[in-house]
Amino acid sequence: MPLSTLSGDLYSESLRITQHVNIIIPDKSDDFWSTIDDEVRVLYLLHGLGANADEWTRFSMIEAYAKIYDLAVVMPDGNRSFYENAPSGPRYLEWVSQELPAIIHAWFNLPSDREHTFIAGESMGGYGALSIGLENPGAYGGIVALSPVTDPTILASDFSELFFGAAEQAAVFGSQGPSKADSIVAKAEQSVKQNGAGAIPRIIQMVGADDPFAPHVRSTAEELTSLGIENSYSSWPGRHDFLFWNEAIERSIRMLCEVE
């Protein structure tokens, strides 16, 4: 398969706007020795708050990892949406989980089955990966959340400077802003109720020990375990930045591909 690192814009009916997407398709070159070289898997990789679709290609070695582990990596713009379906606006969860995968499968003939499809992200993107995976458990073989936002009410309270005030919170989460129903634990409880714990994809969470999100990620992992959801939690020295996430995404990919 020839190498393609594609960057383009396409119209989204879910968002009613032209949206930017980056796509990496692995090749057969000798730039890196492939650890896995049998069948392509697809990883939807989501960016954090304040970033865009270029974030992972700018600050990580994701192109190298795509080659080494035979991954097609799809990186869409999520803007400041938390990858939610806005109450009266763009439907980002629908865009990432339904519309975009249909386009990727049709245009590039890439796999769309659960076994070969994963979703991951960092910070806001980690929240999006968890939300989308829990909403659509039959679509993904694994979910990776790196230093994720796990409860938007905590973010709105303790990190309010990240928002454009209550108006932006209301635009994303509803007129009253984020509630406990928007937490990952609440979404997991709802998914277990609807689908059963065994139907939910394996969840991998990693967070730096010096990250202020670490206590919340750890407690969320404990709650997922109590719900019977297969999940893992890992932490080592690091902060809320790409020095940590670059290492964490490779560790996660190796776990997803069962290399370790």
UniProtKB/TrEMBL annotation:
Gene3D superfamilies referenced in this protein's UniProt entry, alphabetically: alpha/beta hydrolase
SUPFAM superfamilies: alpha/beta-Hydrolases (SSF53474)
One Gene Ontology molecular-function label: acyltransferase activity, transferring groups other than amino-acyl groups
Superkingdom in the source lineage: Bacteria
Pfam families: Esterase
Protein name: Esterase
Protein source organism: Olsenella porci
